[in-house]
Write a structure and sequence with these properties.
This protein is mainly α and about 240 residues long. It has three domains: about 130 residues, no CATH class; about 25 residues; about 50 residues, no CATH class. It contains ten helices and four strands; from the N terminus they run αααααααααβββαβ. The strands form two sheets. A two-stranded antiparallel ribbon has the order 1-3. The chain is rod-shaped.
Length: about 240
């Protein structure tokens, strides 16, 4: 619809103005500046589809090889309604002025064609940094492997306790404490407690106390060692004592 085309063109104008993509003639328009910008557009961004509009707008229907002289002689005051429209001083303007604006800002697709959905079919503005659907898809595909790796890691690591796994935390903490206690008891029992053996080479027992009655039968002096060392040398606990 023509109304959608008009909205799309004016929206594109303000978007480019906001991003600093317009010339000074267009960013701060006056009738004379718009006429000057038309000469610039004629030399730099005119395509075959623009010929009919330029001929109709500036040369009153007469076809020429070069329209620059016609534009230079064009009454700039006729562009004043478009200037007011761009500045928001009036709510609407002639469709011919909208077509002129589309040409000046290099809006695509132009000129207006019946049947084109200008809400959906507007080409993305590459200069404005708005990606089209293919670019968005391509960007998204770059991150897909990373997401797959991350999800695979989470899947394989599901047995590990997480912030929300209170049950796993409650189970692991007691197990760790129990392990530490067991190790401590073992070290204390076998390495921390003293043991006594008769210095006689044939002695087969070790004793936990130097007061053990069996040590009275030791003809030599008894020596102090540890349970671990005694058991390492093949000694066993004296029958008078119990661990």
């Amino acid at each position: 619809m023509l109304e959608d085309y008009k909205k799309a063109v004016i929206s594109n104008y303000h978007d480019k103005k906001e991003k600093g993509l317009l010339s000074l003639n267009l960013a701060h328009p006056t009738p004379a500046k718009l006429r000057n910008e038309s000469i610039v557009a004629l030399r730099s961004r005119t395509k075959k589809e623009d010929d009919a509009f330029i001929k109709d707008f500036f040369n009153f229907g007469t076809k020429l090889e070069d329209y620059s002289r016609s534009i230079e002689r064009f009454d700039a005051d006729k562009l004043r309604p478009l200037v007011k429209f761009l500045k928001g001083l009036i709510e609407d303007t002639d469709p011919r002025n909208v077509e002129l604006l589309a040409w000046l800002i290099d809006f695509e697709p132009r000129p207006y064609k019946f049947g084109v959905d200008y809400v959906l079919d507007i080409k993305p503005d590459k200069e404005s940094g708005i990606p089209d659907k293919d670019e968005e898809k391509e960007e998204g595909s770059e991150t897909l492997p990373e997401l797959t790796k991350e999800r695979e890691f989470e899947k394989n690591s599901s047995f590990l306790p997480t912030k929300n796994s209170s049950i796993a935390r409650k189970a692991i903490v007691p197990m760790m404490v129990l392990s530490l206690v067991t190790i401590g008891v073992y070290l204390y029992t076998n390495h921390g407690i003293k043991a006594y053996i008769c210095d006689k080479g044939s002695a087969r027992k070790y004793h936990l106390s130097d007061k053990c009655p069996a040590l009275k039968n030791c003809k030599d002096q008894f020596v102090q060692t540890s349970i671990a060392e005694a058991e390492k040398n093949g000694k066993t606990l004296c029958g008078f004592e119990h661990k």
